[in-house]
Write a structure and sequence with these properties.
This is Dehydrogenase. Belongs to the D-isomer specific 2-hydroxyacid dehydrogenase family. GO terms for molecular function: glyoxylate reductase (NADPH) activity; hydroxypyruvate reductase [NAD(P)H] activity; NAD binding. The chain has 340 residues and is an alpha/beta fold. The protein folds into 2 domains: 136 residues, Rossmann fold (3-Layer(aba) Sandwich); 181 residues, Rossmann fold. 36% of the residues lie in helices and 14% in strands. It has a 7-stranded parallel beta sheet, with helices on both faces. Helix 8 links the parallel strand 6 and strand 7. The longest helix is centred in the middle third of the chain and has 20 residues.
């Protein structure tokens, strides 16, 4: 990662949960980090309203953040007069950044692109397994201890199915590229996606109602917001054809949980849900026991060795700052309403 154009070491402060520093940055990446930067306070700042934090922020050019970063508001920024960038080594920045950061012209970078890789991989697997009726067959085997029975099973397999992708986000675009390997018709709904880009991604752009009516498998990749909350309500769920599979690796609030539960209890639809609303579901939710439902505990995003990809991307961004190059993964204030 060494760069002969380097202008000098950055002065950074690190604000995240203590355990996440070693989780996100392996030994090699940490060595690269410390080659690039001088840390203004040894260790990790878990609070930004202490005297120790104030001393660290006073000389920091860059704030390296991660999961559990405290809120960065005007009071924190007043303590950091030299701050010119926030480099986030995790996904969304909405949980801790305020508009004041952008108002002061501070650059922001996020590792959301790196985090999109495992989510897209998980979603692709869910599409294939959902179409294969993985949950139903697994439940059948556990219940009967016998060979598979296909009687009464919805249409099975990916050959000739229609996949509806809601949201051409980073993750949505990766999913669109992955499903091109399937023998499937691909639809996409995203009001901000130009038709030419949709075509380049191998998808036909349609309105959401049409996507619901036509999709054998529907997968959600829209951000959470006022216009997307419960976008899959009772009316739209009813548009889905019998046997359709609903996949959610985005945000639980994009689906009306009560309406989806009502559909799933009848067995008309299948679902693979990595996120729910609420999360987790109440202990008495019938979704835990239904053969046509697979629930996972928010595992699609980076876990285990996957999180090292996020730390490596953050260090790449620090390298760019140190060598006077533009950020590769900037987050812009006007884009916040439309991104996760």
């Amino acid at each position: 990662m060494a760069d002969t154009g380097r202008r000098g070491k950055l002065r950074i402060a690190i604000a995240m949960r203590d355990a996440d520093l070693s989780a996100l940055f392996g030994p090699t990446t940490l060595a690269e980090l410390y080659e690039l930067a001088t840390v203004t306070h040894p260790g990790v700042l878990q609070s930004l309203d202490t005297e120790v934090a104030a001393a660290a922020l006073a000389d920091a050019e860059v704030l390296l953040t991660g999961w559990g970063t405290p809120r960065i508001d005007h009071a924190v920024l007043d303590l950091a007069p030299k701050l010119r960038a926030v480099v986030h080594s995790a996904g969304t920045v909405k949980t801790f950044l305020t508009d004041e950061v952008f108002a002061r012209g501070i650059q922001v970078s996020s590792a959301a692109d790196a985090n999109s890789v495992p989510v897209a991989e998980f979603t692709f697997a869910a599409i294939v397994l959902g179409a294969k009726r993985f949950g139903r067959f697994a439940h059948q085997l556990h219940a009967t201890r016998a060979s598979r029975r296909t009687e009464g099973m919805p249409p099975t397999g990916t050959n000739g199915i229609t996949i509806g992708v809601v949201g051409a986000s980073r993750i949505g675009r990766r999913v669109l590229r992955l499903v091109q390997h399937l023998d499937a018709t691909v639809l996409v709904y995203d009001p901000y996606l130009p038709r030419a880009e949709a075509a380049a991604l191998g998808a036909q752009p349609v309105e959401l109602d049409e996507l619901c009516r036509r999709s054998t498998v529907l997968t959600l990749h829209a951000p959470e917001g006022p216009t997307t909350r419960r976008m899959l309500d009772a009316r739209r769920l009813a548009l889905l054809p019998d046997g359709a599979v609903v996949i959610n690796t985005a945000r639980g609030s994009l689906i009306d949980t009560a309406a989806l539960t009502a559909e799933l209890v009848t067995g008309r639809l299948d679902a693979l849900l990595d996120v729910t609303d609420p999360e987790p579901l109440p202990a008495d939710s019938p979704l835990y026991e239904l053969p046509n439902v697979v629930l996972t505990p928010h595992i699609a995003g980076a876990l285990g060795n996957e999180v090292r990809r996020l730390g490596a991307q953050a260090v790449d961004e620090l390298n760019r700052l140190a060598t006077g190059r533009p950020l590769a993964h900037p987050v812009l204030g006007p884009d916040l309403p439309h991104i996760a």
